[in-house]
Specification:
This protein is an alpha+beta fold and 234 residues long. The chain is built from seven helices and seven strands; from the N terminus they run H-E-E-E-E-H-E-H-H-H-E-E-H-H. The chain has a single domain, classed as Class II aldolase/adducin N-terminal domain (L-fuculose-1-phosphate Aldolase), CATH 3.40.225.10. Helices cover 40% and strands 13% of the residues. Strand 6 (163-166) and strand 7 (170-175) form a beta hairpin. It is globular, with a radius of gyration of 18 Å.
């Protein structure tokens, strides 16, 4: 069986989405890529988390051709492959319909950076895509969703802003590995929940976090000379 190690990682990442409570039933999906082979492992479509196993994962190439698997791949596969082609540093992608992130996506609003919780994990606001046109939906809804995300990330480092909201749809997140992607998806939902509460408490549109505070918090965790946590070399 091809890419068994990656199958196991992708299956575990999908199960982690379920454990963290950011998916219901068969909602959501996670994938991972083997860059050397140009092959993607992704969750099968419509398979419940309670029965999911590594051997159920589907292997496709970057042209969305099924290479190995007994199931149909996720209906969002073409979105994933567009993102993998556009973002070479990305090794895993997660998609959920988590409630607070979906609420911002349905409002067609980017998620502003209002405080340091957000700044610790994303170097600025989380962009929201433009709504898809009728023609885009008819042409290739899933691929056009990926292209809309790529356009929304134009000029940004996808590892510094590892998440986006798709207008009227929901969140996508990514990272260097499938586990990273899931972590960012879970964090995005918490960021959206906190931002929603902040908007309620403030009675309107709260001011964004000051840029110098945002930069400080992001750099201490993710910058070239990051100092958060322990020295892993010891």
């Amino acid at each position: 069986m091809l890419l068994m190690h990656l199958r196991e990682a992708v299956c575990e990442a999908n199960l982690e989405l379920n454990r963290r409570g950011v998916v219901l039933y068969t909602w959501g999906n996670v994938s991972g890529i083997d860059r050397e082979r140009g092959l993607v492992v992704i969750k099968p479509s419509g398979v419940g988390y309670e029965t999911m196993r590594p051997e159920h994962m589907v292997v496709v190439d970057l042209d969305n051709t099924i290479i190995e698997g007994d199931y149909r791949p996720s209906s969002d596969t073409r979105t994933h492959t567009v993102l993998y082609r556009a973002f070479p540093a990305v090794g895993g992608i997660a998609h959920t319909h988590s409630a607070h992130a979906v609420a911002w996506a349905q409002a067609r609003r980017p998620l502003p950076c209002l405080g340091t919780t957000h700044a610790d994990h994303c170097a600025g606001e989380v962009p929201c895509t433009e709504p898809l046109s009728r023609e885009q939906v008819r042409r290739d809804y899933e691929a056009e969703t990926g292209h809309a995300i790529v356009h929304a990330l134009e000029g940004l480092d996808p590892l510094a802003v590892p998440m986006a909201l798709v207008a009227g749809h929901g969140p996508f997140a990514w990272g260097k590995t499938p586990a990273d992607a899931v972590r960012h998806a879970v964090i995005l939902e918490e960021m959206a929940r906190i931002a929603t509460l902040t908007a309620v408490v403030s009675g309107g549109a709260p001011p964004p976090l000051e840029d110098h505070v945002l930069s400080y918090h992001y750099e201490r965790k993710h910058g070239k000379n990051a100092w958060y946590g322990q020295d892993k070399s010891k």
